[in-house]
């Protein structure tokens, strides 16, 4: 039986990408309960392949005992597009189907977050200034419609 493909999601961080991996489901049942691959094998190996304009690089094989887990790939060039594919294997089963390639530019989410915060801050400051000017106008401090009484001139 072949293992895979795992479910892979990729998000970017500053000069890194976060790869979230969900192990493939098994079709084995025990007492009407669907067994996970961890139930069956206790521990699985996974290998992430990183692809960029520089080529394809296999990362060191790691082990997991969790159904859903994350791996962070650091020291990447900002704004460069990176793609990852993950393959899962067990000590007793080396037949694996790799995940589809998932791509994301490094650092894009981090910078987008800063732009959103800056825009929200600018809108809030504008609303505060507009409110203050409205209060000053209502209080008669500027743009008065009626002339002042002669005693105040």
UniProtKB/TrEMBL annotation:
Gene Ontology cellular-component annotations: plasma membrane
Pfam families: Interfer-bind
Ranges where the Interferon/interleukin receptor domain occurs: 3-104
Annotated GO MF terms: interleukin-22 receptor activity
Gene3D superfamilies found in the cross-reference section: Immunoglobulins (2.60.40.10)
Source species, domain of life: Eukaryota
Family annotation (InterPro entries): FN3_sf, Ig-like_fold, Interferon/interleukin_rcp_dom, Type-II_Cytokine-TF_Rcpt
Protein name (record): INRA2 protein
């Amino acid at each position: 039986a072949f293992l895979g493909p795992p479910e892979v999601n990729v998000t970017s961080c500053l000069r890194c990408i976060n790869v979230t991996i969900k192990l493939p489901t098994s079709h084995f049942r025990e007492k009407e309960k669907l067994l996970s691959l961890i139930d069956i094998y206790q521990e699985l190996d996974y290998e992430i392949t990183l692809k960029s304009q520089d080529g394809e690089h296999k990362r060191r094989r790691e082990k997991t005992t969790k159904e859903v887990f994350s791996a962070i790939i650091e020291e990447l060039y900002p704004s460069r597009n990176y793609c990852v594919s993950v393959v899962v294997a067990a000590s007793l089963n080396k037949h694996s189907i790799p995940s589809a390639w998932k791509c994301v530019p490094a650092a894009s989410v981090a910078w987008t977050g800063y732009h959103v915060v800056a825009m929200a801050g600018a809108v809030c400051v504008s609303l505060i200034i507009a409110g203050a000017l409205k209060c000053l106008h209502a209080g008669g401090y500027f743009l008065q419609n009626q002339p002042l009484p002669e005693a105040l001139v």
